[in-house]
Design goal:
The chain is mainly α. 46% of the residues lie in helices and 6% in strands. The chain has ten helices and five strands, in the order H-H-H-E-E-E-E-E-H-H-H-H-H-H-H. A three-stranded antiparallel sheet has the order 1-2-5, with no helix packed on it. A two-stranded antiparallel ribbon has the order 3-4. Helix 2 packs antiparallel against helix 4, helix 2 runs parallel beside helix 6 and helix 7 crosses helix 8. The radius of gyration is 28 Å and the shape is globular.
Length: 243
């Protein structure tokens, strides 16, 4: 019988393998995907102006609520408290099939502003069936997200020179605008229906160029305030007197 001793630290079989070849393996460098872009406010307005209803209303509601497109297309009139302006998200739809929302936190009630409520008011029938979808075909079936995007949104975006516009991009844009107005991460997490604040913080927040400029200018004002300017002028005059 032959006994082979093993080195428990690095997995090398003593007397059989001289070294662990796996330790010499070099992993490929990490490849970063393209940077996620968001729509500026002016681009959102321009895009909406080129769309007809119901696509226009769907696009605006997505960018004003941060709902996933499946959540919006599954929204029923009975799930909207019109007076309180509080839609409740409790369903999602994909390829015509209804299901529960993505996560437990995705089942949520969100507030909406007056302008957003007016958009819903314009598409609401006089006698709204509580079980009816807010956006539906003539047969009462859910709209096809792919057709809306391919036939309406993308052609309008192309006219504006906007590439990569998707339903999910509108959700990203909403998150970024929330961040731009100083919304706490916890509040954003609740509005977006994320299961963890890390998802909100690491994936959905993208600084808008204007916000970046505002941020650096705010730092400049802290460093180069009025007092700094006065001190600099005083130093220059004193230096000239000494010379």
């Amino acid at each position: 019988m032959i006994f082979v001793a093993r080195d428990q630290q690095d997995g090398v079989i003593v007397g059989y393998i001289a070294e662990n070849l796996a330790q010499k393996t070099k992993l490929p460098r990490r490849q970063y995907g393209p940077q996620q872009v968001v729509l500026a406010v002016s681009q959102i307005r321009d895009l909406a102006a080129l769309l007809d209803d119901p696509t226009r209303s769907i696009m605006l509601l997505l960018v004003l609520t941060g709902l996933r497109v499946g959540e919006l297309l599954a929204l029923r009139w009975g799930n909207i408290d019109v007076k309180a302006r509080m839609p409740r998200v409790c369903e999602t739809v994909y390829e015509g099939h209804f299901d529960k929302p993505k996560t437990k936190r995705s089942v949520r009630t969100i507030p909406i502003g007056k302008e957003t409520a007016e958009i819903l008011g314009r598409v609401r029938p006089a006698l709204a069936d509580p079980t009816a979808l807010v956006f539906a075909t003539r047969e009462g079936l859910p709209l096809d997200r792919r057709n809306l995007l391919r036939k309406h949104v993308k052609p309008a975006a192309k006219k504006l020179g906007l590439a990569g516009v998707t339903w999910h991009l509108l959700r990203h844009s909403y998150a970024t605008m929330l961040d731009g107005v100083g919304t706490p991460v916890g509040t954003m997490q609740s509005l977006l229906g994320h299961s963890a604040p890390e998802i909100t913080r690491e994936i959905y927040l993208h600084a808008i160029p204007e916000e970046q400029r505002r941020a650096v200018e705010s730092v400049e004002r802290l460093v180069f305030g009025p007092k700094w300017t006065q001190v600099t002028e005083l130093d220059q005059s004193t230096s000239g007197a000494v010379n």
